[in-house]
Specification:
Layout: H1 9-16, H2 19-23, H3 25-42, E1 51-55, H4 61-67, E2 73-78, H5 81-97, E3 104-108, H6 116-121, E4 133-139, H7 148-157, E5 159-170, H8 177-187, H9 207-216, E6 220-234, H10 239-248, H11 250-255, H12 261-275, E7 279-280, E8 283-296
Parallel strand pairs: 1-2, 1-4, 2-3, 4-5
Antiparallel strand pairs: 5-8, 6-8, 7-8
Helix pairs in contact: 8-12, 10-12
């Protein structure tokens, strides 16, 4: 398969082996939950029987939450078969606990290239009256496409006329020291290895760039609403546990692969030093800033 056939192949391979995101799923859900819910509240006024497409759904938390807010259906898509496997297992338990929730389906798919309408048609919960999704939603799952204009055009094609788009993305690195502080501490000791996907969580920090992408994909009524918040780096109670979490995620895990024990110890000490000033009774807390982006088809 050529790069043209699978333009996000690097991302697919990266997430195929991202077991740590499964291992740390509960902490990551806790970390991001309030941000995802803010974008849900913005998009709350959906018609009865609304169908929601959750892009980059990961281990499924947001899809489960949407199933309690709509009466139609929820389809979660993600490029990672590993994460979708977790999402499907969670959905089984969720359905038993919430019998009145809307039905949920999950699919391993690249939202940039997949035939999303065909995926929807194959979903048992969607009947013949389906005319497109009422809402395309994402919590931090749309910043990594190789061709974002093509991706958002593909998502719009699966959205009914008048349907909505709502997603959250990070503002600038300067406004999100929760990530930059740790990364800087790591890279002062070890170099980042070459290879891997060019994943930039701040790719949509510039609002003009976001408007250009969405406008180029045919979306109208584009709005970006800034939000300042706090990010609990980890819900772990102690600094040592939070350092463990930081060592297990992000660039620390990749950069330390193959490094001798003394380098691991140096990085651990460096991370502890930058996190300690932010320690509170609720955990390590940093300021954070994100956009809620909305548009209409």
């Amino acid at each position: 398969m050529s790069a043209n056939d699978d333009p996000n192949a690097d991302q697919r391979e990266f997430w195929r082996t991202a077991e740590v995101w499964v291992e740390q799923q509960e902490r990551l859900d806790t970390q991001l939950a309030h941000i995802g819910l803010a974008a849900m509240d913005v998009a709350e006024q959906l018609p009865p029987g609304a169908h929601v497409l959750d892009v980059g759904c990961g281990c499924g938390q947001t899809s489960l939450q949407w199933s309690e807010r709509v009466t139609g259906s929820v389809l979660g898509v993600d490029i990672s078969d590993l994460l979708i496997g977790v999402a499907r297992r969670r959905a089984t338990g969720h359905a038993a606990e919430h019998p009145a929730a809307a039905p949920i389906s999950f699919a391993v798919a690249d939202a940039q290239t997949a035939d999303i309408e065909a995926l929807a048609a194959a979903t048992p919960a969607i009947d013949g009256s389906f005319g497109g999704f009422d809402l395309v939603y994402s919590r931090m799952g749309v910043m990594f496409f190789a061709d974002p204009v093509a991706a958002f055009a593909n998502l719009r094609a699966a959205t009914r006329p008048g349907g909505r788009l709502s997603f959250v993305c990070w503002q600038t690195p300067r406004q999100n020291p929760w990530l930059i502080t740790v990364n800087k501490a790591v890279l002062e000791i070890v170099e980042m290895p070459e290879g891997g996907p060019a994943a930039n969580p701040f790719a949509f920090a510039d609002p003009d760039y976001v408007r250009e992408i969405l406008g180029g994909a045919g979306w109208d009524g584009i709005e970006l609403e800034p939000h300042d918040t706090e990010m609990v780096f980890s819900s772990a109670g102690t600094l040592d546990e939070t350092v463990d979490f930081a060592m297990d995620l992000g660039i620390a895990r990749r950069a330390l692969r193959g490094q001798p024990p003394e380098k691991h110890a140096q990085v651990r000490d460096a991370i502890a030093a930058v996190l300690e000033p932010h320690q509170t009774p609720d955990g390590v807390v940093f300021p954070a800033a994100f956009w809620i982006v909305t548009a209409r088809n």
